[in-house]
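Sync notes, pocket subgroup
Present: LS, DG
LS reminded everyone that the earlier model was apo-only. Rerun requested with S-adenosyl-L-homocysteine included. Inputs:
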Amino acid sequence: MSTIYLRRKISPRVVNGHPWIFNNEVDKVEGEPAAGAVVEVFTHDKKFVGKGYYNSQSQIVVRLLSRRKTDVINEEYFLEQLRSCWNYRVRLGYTENCRLVFGEADSLPQLIIDKFNDYFVIQTLALGIDVWKPAIVKALNTIFQPKGIYERNDVPVRELEGLPQQKGFLSAPFDTNIIIRENGLQFHVDIANGQKTGYFLDQQDNRRAIQHIVKDAEVLGAFTYTGTFEVHAAHYGAKSVLGLDISANAVEQANRNAVLNGVQDRCRFETANAFDVLKQWGKDGRQYDVVMLDPPAFTKSRETIQKAITGYKEINLRGMKLIRPGGFLVTSSCTNLVNPELFLQIIDMAAKDARRKIRQVTFQKQASDHPIIWGMENTEYLKFLIVQVM
Ligand code: SAH
């Protein structure tokens, strides 16, 4: 096995537990590790740091898998890791659907596995984890005997690792339009063509958090995707719910989800650009009791963070203007580039510009099947806030 020695003067980040080793942190490479191979990492003074996978093509040359010298990274290792990921979720009460593997937070860097009851969707986003795909599939078959496994590697980030974008079956083919259950409701999930892995499991606890505020309310949802929050609102007793998304596909699926749950009489969806429509309806003087917003990240890099801040502020400002005094704003942000503190500042700025007083009802993060590792900032990404708008 090849050996990597770190430079003497680097930040203590890696030694303190972060699994990423950047190009400029490496002093020397002993041996000629193949791309994707497992290497051992030591400090400049030869203290063992961990074992990880190597890719000289990537800015992040090593991602650590283990801190234990005795661990052997082989097929069996992945079986044990996946078992331990599942045990953790079972312990937290998950039975049907969960993010089974949340990459770095589960010591399996760049591996995402979503479990939709008997079906699994996998993403291997770095070369060093991609080479273990057969072992990972084998482990899933051993632990779960799934009805189907599907790969959603149609993501641009793979190209930074020299990997192609691709998607397809990792099991015998199956009908990729499935139905999952959540909080007593049912949702169509399109595993092959939906966004990301098909469904946003990270909001499953947050969807329950709207239960009381939507009762008898007129609700407007924007950035609804397949309508999960809106169908929950109708189920929890909203008088009427209108959901908006820019994607016609998402809207079609959302309307099907309303029918699936028998709430189509009071919950409907339309295709629209939320920025334009909310602005116009503000001018028209439309009012709602609850406005729910769950926009996309708006940016993928720290350099263009201002774009995200502007986007979040703008849409929340427009949302607040549509809320009757005493009503509620339910608002999310799904990028780790906007940290929780900054997100609250943005909402505060939006409230000031809208000349509305707000008070915090609840402030939550992603569901606990997406654990947060302190010091690993990309594991803390979802913010979910409910404020009352006076
Ligand atoms: N709330 C959803 C997830 C929303 S993802 C859930 O819990 O499942 C963000 C959504 O915003 C995507 O469906 C995307 O199509 C939509 N979107 C992006 N830009 C938009 C815009 N300008 N107007 C309306 N929808 C938009």
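DG: The CA atoms of residues 177 and 220 lie 27 Å apart.
LS: The mean pLDDT is 97.
Action: DG to write up.
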